[in-house]
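Field reference: sequence -> structure
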Amino acid sequence: MLHFAFLIPLFPLVGFAILAPVGKRIGNPAAGWIATAMVFASFIVTIIVLAKVASMPADSRLYVQNWFTWFSSGSLSIGAGIQVDPLSLTMASFITGIGSMIHLYSIGYMEHDEAFPKFFVYLNLFVFSMLMLVLGENLLITFLGWEGVGVCSYFLIAFWFTRDSAASAGKKAMIYNRIGDAGFLLALFLLIERTHSLTFTTIFSRLSSLSKGELIAVSLLLFVGAAGKSAQLPLFPWLADAMEGPTPVSALIHAATMVTAGVYLMCRVSPILHLAPDAGHVIAWIGAATAFIAATTGCAQTDIKKVLAYSTVSQLGYMFLAVGCGAYDAAVFLMLTHAFYKALLFLGSGSVIHAMHEEQDIKKMGALCKVMPLTSLTFFIGWLSIAGVPPFSGFWAKGDVLSNAWVVSPALWAVGALTAILTAYYMGRQYLLVFLGERRWKSEGSEAIHPHDAGWKMSAPLIVLSVLATFGGLLNLPFGSKLAFLDSWLAPVVGASLLHNTDSTAQLWFFGVADGVFALAGVAIAYSLWRNVVDRSVLEPRFLYMAWFIDSAIDRLIARPSTALAAFSATVVEPRVIDAAVNGVAGAFRLSGQRLRRIQTGYVRSYALVIVSALVLIVAYFMVRSGL
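Structure field:
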C-alpha cells in the first residue's frame, strides 16, 4: 500500500488540472463537488497508508518514494519524491480531512459567487501545495510547496480583488512571507555548503560537520521562514488582514494549511534544534511573547473573524513555545486539536456572516442562539475547546504545552498560563456578544435580517468538527504511555530530540487542575463582564485594538521610508547617477571619436609620413638603448 502514497498529493493536483481549463464550463455546483471529491479521495488514501505504516515496527516507519533526479551538480544531487513517516502522515491526515470539510462547506458558502469554479481551482492547488510541503523528502521539495501555499494564499486572500482592502491584504501577505523566505533560503544555502545535501535523512546524518554557531544560524534562519509563514513576532500583521478573503479561505489557512507549515518545519528539523538549545530558547520566548500579545489584541477586536485571526496567532505562539522547549510532540498535538476547533470556529463565523448579510461586527449581533441553534451550539463547543475547559480537546493539548514549558522555565509557564486565561476570556466575550444578550439587528423594514442556520452542506462540517473538537484529546492522554497514542506514534521522528519531562503523577494532577482553573476563570470573567453589556471601552483600548501598534510601527519605520527611498531612487539616483554614468561613458567615447576623426585626412602621403616618422622614432629608440 505504501507504493500508492503518491496518490495523496496527486488527487488535488488532478482536481486543479481538470478545473483550471474547464471549471467555468462545468459550472456551479459541479466544480465544487469535483474539487471536494478529489481532496476526500486524498484523505482516504492517507488513512490507508497511515494504517499500513502504523502496522509496521516503530523503527521501520519510514518510506521514501523517489520519482526522479531533479538536478545534479558536483556532489549535490537533488531528487524529486516524497517521504512517508508518522509526522508527514499526521500532517497529511488533517490537511486532507479538514480540507475536505472546508471544501464541502464552500459549496454552500460560495454558491452565489460568480467566480465559483475559480475558487475551487485555487483551493485544490492550495491543498496540493501543502501536501507537497509536508510530504517532500528534501528541503527543496518542501520549499516548493512552501512557495506554492504562499502563491495560493495571495490568490485566495485577494480573491475579491475589486475591493481595495482585499487586494492590499493579498499583497501584504505575499510581502511578509517573502521576508521570511529570505531566512529559509539562507538556511538552505548554508546546509548545502556544509552537508552537500538537502535530503532530510542525509542532513541529519552529517550534522557533525556544522559548528555550534552554524547550527544556531541554521535553526534561527529556518525559524525566520517559519515566523513569516506562521505569523510570529514581528511578522504576524498580515494574518489579521488576510480576513479579507472568503471565510472558507480563512478556515483553510488557519486550520489546515498555511500557518501550520512553520510549526511542521521546526518539528521536521528537530535534530538540528536539539543540537542548538540557545536557538530553542529564542524560539520559545518569541512564541510566548507572540501568544500573549495576540491574546491581548483579541480582547479588543470587534470583527468576528479578526478575533479568530489573533486567536490563531496566539495559538501558534503556544506551538512555537513547545517547539522551543523541545516538546515537539506537544506542538503537534496542539496543532491537531487547533485544526479541529479553529476550523469549527471559522466555519461557524462564516455561517453567522452568511446569515447576517455579510455583517462582521460582533457589536451589531446578539441573541443569535435563538435563531441559529446549531451554529450557536457548535461555536460554544469551539469556545470551550480553545479555552481549555476540560474535557474538551484544547484542555489536554494546551496543558501538555504548559507542563513542558514549566520544565524549561517557570517564567515561560507563567506567560503561557496568563495567556490561557486571556484566551478563555476573549473567546467568551465573542460568544456572548454574538449569540447571547439582546438582539442588535433589524428584523423588520427594508433592511431586515432573518438569520438562520445554513443548509446541510454548511452544517454537516460544523457537526463533524464539533465532535473532533470535543474528543480530539483522546489522541494523547497523559495517563501513561498506553494512552499517549500520539507520543508513541511520533517517537520514531522526534523521540531522540524530545525534552524529557519527568513530572510525577502529583505534578501532572497539579498542572491539570491549574489548567482547568485558568480556563474556567477566563470563562467566568467573560461571563461576568459581557453577559448583558455591549460597550466597555476601558477594556477595549485603542492600543490593543491596533495590535500594540506593531503594524503601524512597521509601516512608519520600514514601509514608508522604503517607499520614499524607492521614489528617491527612481527620480534622483536612477536618472542623475546611474543614467548619468552610463550616458557619461557613451558621451566620452563619442567626444574622443570626434577628436580622433580629425587626424583622418584621407591622404596617403600623410599616412606614409606618419608611418615613416614612427619607424624613425622606433629605430632611434633602440639605437639609444644599445649605446650606438
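Note: The chain is about 70% helix and 5% strand.
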